[in-house]
Write a structure and sequence with these properties.
single chain; alpha/beta; 6-stranded mixed beta sheet; 11 helices; 13 strands; 23% strand
Length: 332
C-alpha cells in the first residue's frame, strides 16, 4: 500500500501532547477522599463502568489516527513491471479537401479513411501517434500522444466541411501536410519515425513542394508512407443544387508519380487504395512493416482505499459521543 499525501502523517505528532495532557488532567479530576484506613474498601467490587472509563479517550485516538490515514490517501497498487513492447512515433497526415467526399469508397473517402485509421490506432496502444490534416493549407489536429482516447475523439471530429465553410482553404497541399507532420517528429528521440500520408489528389497548393518536404523528412530520418485513395476513372461526387444533393461523376486524378517519389526518397512505400478492402489492407501492411522493440515500465492499476479509514473515523467518533453522553456521562 502506498500513500498519495504522506506529509499528513506529521499530524500524528499531535497525539503525543494530547496523551500527556489527558493523563495529567485525568489525575486532577479524580475525586480524592482522605480516610484513616482502606480496610473497608479492600473487598469492593469494581463496576463495569470503571473498566470503560478510558474507552472514549481511546476512541478519540482511533478517530484522529484514522482521519489522518484517510487524508494521506492510501492506495493499493500493482507493481511496476518492465516489458518489451513494440512502439514507434507516427504522424497520420490526412487529406480533408472537399474531393474526399467522393463516394467511390463507402460511405465516402473521408469516412472510410477515418474508419481504418481508428482501427490502426487501436491496434498500436504503445505508440506515440498524432494527426495532421491538410487541404489547401495544413495544421496539426492532434500532437503526438499515447492518450489515444483524445486522439480518436479529434479524429472523429475531422470533417471535409472545414474547407466548405472556409475554416481551411480548399485544395491539396501535399508538401505542406508532410512538412507539418515532419515538424512534429523532427525532435523525437524514437529510433523509428513515420508519416502516413493519405490523399486523393495532386499537389496544387502550398508554399512547400512535395519533393522539398520529402527531402526535409529524409534529413531527419523520417519515413513517409504515401497512400493514394480513390477508384480508377471517375467517382460519384455529391454537389448541392438549389439546396438539394445531386451527384456528378468526378474524374479521379491522383499524382501517383509524385507519391511514389516521396516514398522512394524517404525509404517509405507507396500504396494505392481503390476501395475499402484495399485501404484496410494498406494499413495492415504498414502495421506489419513498422515494428520496433523497446523496453517500457508499465503500471497496471491502482485504487483509492481512504474510504475504509474514513468510515473507521466516523464510527469511532460516533461511539465516543454516544458513550460520553450516556452511560459514561460524568457529573461536574
Amino acid at each position: 500500500m502506498t500513500f498519495a499525501n504522506p506529509y499528513y502523517f506529521l499530524l500524528l505528532i499531535l497525539l503525543v501532547p494530547y496523551i500527556i495532557w489527558y493523563v495529567i488532567m485525568h489525575r486532577r479530576i479524580d475525586p480524592v477522599l482522605q480516610v484513616s484506613s482502606l480496610e473497608a474498601f479492600r473487598h469492593r467490587h469494581h463496576t463495569w463502568k470503571e473498566y470503560l472509563v478510558h474507552v472514549p479517550f481511546l476512541l478519540r485516538l482511533v478517530c484522529f489516527t484514522a482521519a489522518v490515514l484517510a487524508l494521506a490517501r492510501p492506495q493499493s497498487t500493482d507493481e511496476w513491471s518492465e516489458s518489451n513492447v513494440e512502439g514507434i512515433d507516427i504522424m497520420l497526415c490526412m487529406d480533408v479537401s472537399t474531393s474526399m467526399l467522393a463516394e467511390d469508397l463507402k460511405p465516402n473517402r473521408i469516412e472510410a479513411a477515418k474508419e481504418v485509421a481508428i482501427e490502426f490506432i487501436n491496434g498500436r496502444p504503445n505508440d506515440n501517434i498524432g494527426l495532421t490534416i491538410f487541404a489547401g493549407e495544413s495544421y496539426t489536429q492532434c500532437p503526438m500522444t499515447t492518450d489515444h482516447a483524445v486522439l480518436l475523439n479529434l479524429l472523429n471530429k475531422m470533417e471535409c466541411d472545414m474547407a466548405e465553410t472556409g475554416l481551411i482553404e480548399d485544395g491539396t497541399a501535399i508538401g505542406m501536410g508532410i512538412a507539418n507532420s515532419v515538424s512534429r517528429l523532427k525532435d523525437s528521440k524514437a529510433k523509428s519515425k513515420v508519416v502516413i500520408m493519405l490523399t486523393d489528389g495532386s499537389n496544387n497548393r502550398g508554399e512547400i513542394s512535395p519533393f522539398t518536404a520529402a527531402d526535409i523528412a529524409k534529413s531527419f530520418g523520417i519515413r513517409v508512407y504515401t497512400i493514394g485513395v480513390g477508384t480508377n476513372g471517375t467517382a460519384r461526387y455529391p454537389v448541392k443544387v438549389a439546396g438539394y444533393k445531386q451527384y456528378i461523376q468526378m474524374p479521379v486524378e491522383i499524382d501517383t508519380k509524385t507519391l511514389k517519389q516521396i516514398a522512394h526518397t524517404t525509404d517509405g512505400v507507396f500504396y494505392r487504395a481503390t476501395n475499402n478492402k484495399s485501404l484496410h489492407e494498406v494499413y495492415q501492411e504498414i502495421d506489419k512493416l513498422e515494428k520496433t522493440k523497446m523496453q517500457v515500465n508499465k503500471y497496471n492499476s491502482y485504487s483509492e482505499e481512504f474510504f475504509l479509514f474514513l468510515l473507521i473515523a466516523v464510527i469511532a467518533l460516533a461511539l465516543e459521543l454516544l458513550l460520553r453522553t450516556t452511560i459514561l456521562n460524568r457529573m461536574p
